[in-house]
Amino acid sequence: MRQQPLIIGAGPAGCAAAIRLGRAGHRPLMIERGTGPADKVCGDFLSADTIAQASELGIDPLALGAAPIERMRLVHHGRVVETRLPFNAVGLSRRVFDAALTERAVQAGAVVRNGQAVRQIVRGRDTWSVQLERGGSLDATTVFLATGKHDVRDMPRPGRSDGAVGLKMYYRPSADVARDLANTTELILFPGGYAGVQPVEDGRIVVCVAVRPGTLKAIGGWDGLLAGNAYLAERLRAAQPLLSRTLAIAGVPYGYLAQAGAAGLFRLGDQGAVIPSLTGDGMSIALHSGSSAANAWVAGIDAAIWQRSLARTLAPQMKLAGFLHDVALSAAGQSFGIQVAGLWPGLLRVFASRTRLRAAPVCSNPTAYPGPHPAAA
After folding, report:
1. What is the pLDDT of residues 183-241, one digit of tens each?
2. How far, in Å, CA of 344 to CA of 338, rounded?
3. DSSP 33
4. CA-to-CA distance for 286 and 289, rounded, in angstroms?
5. Rounded to whole angstroms, how far apart are CA atoms 209 and 166?
6. What's 63's DSSP letter?
7. Average of pLDDT values for 336-340?
8. Are strands 29-32 and 111-114 parallel, antiparallel or unpaired?
9. Residue 183 phi, psi dihedral angles, 5° rounding
10. Sign of dihedral through CA atoms 340, 342, 343, 349?
11. DSSP 3-state of 289
12. Which run of H or E residues covers position 29?
């Protein structure tokens, strides 16, 4: 009998893998550095593909209170371009979504250990030895690495040395702002960065920011960002912050795509690909990678073959997303982008469509591998 795989990280990618493995009759161990579901810097936008994948895993975001999103706005220096999204979407906080996924993983048979941070992963002759921060280790022939944007020692993801800073805060908006943001997601461009604003469950809104480190330092951090952007400041003028502090993560390696894997190591979610936040497709990639990796393992597909297959699947959207991210961070790109969008709002829908995951649906049969035949890899 094959040794049960070890899943590191209980976010969407890790939970998707655990659910698929559990449905196939396995009892994977899933370890998580946190003590349970928590607010995360990214991932509150769920596109139609993400909703479909969540449904396949037994989760209905709307039943969890997700806010419907049908329109998008691009904002730059007070100029606003608005159009319909080319797909249905919802806004749902990571805390709620992750809790539902973890519960489903446990129901499927996964064993979850919280508060287990990984210090190092070492490759032995035939197994991986996972060293824990509090001492001790776990050995496994197969590891699903799903630690999100947090790297494990000696296993860093290459990326830009000036990787963006991600920031996030939830608010209780004024009644006027809540009405204006209903069914809408906004992308607000400012020098050196951009902010996403949208509704989530329970009448709240979320503000997520990607900004260059130098820009953030120059403007004086979060408070300086809000004070220096008239449109965003008006949005939040009468809003009540709902977290004790702004969530933040530095050095986000946008554009990273794992091209090759190692024997017995599946890189899932942000460990496999970090798509720029403005696309809102990170959760779709996370769920797809977790589900397809689990099905590949069940079918006996080597991790390195699966990783190359995932990279080929994601490469087109990652390339376009990287280009849009660079445009959105540059002053010239922002000015040009808002002018073009104003003349042709449909271009926003084109970009939204072409930065979606384009992959065959993950088969509900966990013994069927949802990807190219190994011989084609």
Report:
1. 999 999 999 999 999 999 999 999 999 999 999 999 999 999 988 899 999 999 999 99
2. 10
3. S
4. 5
5. 6
6. G
7. 96
8. parallel
9. 65, 20
10. positive
11. helix
12. strand 29-32
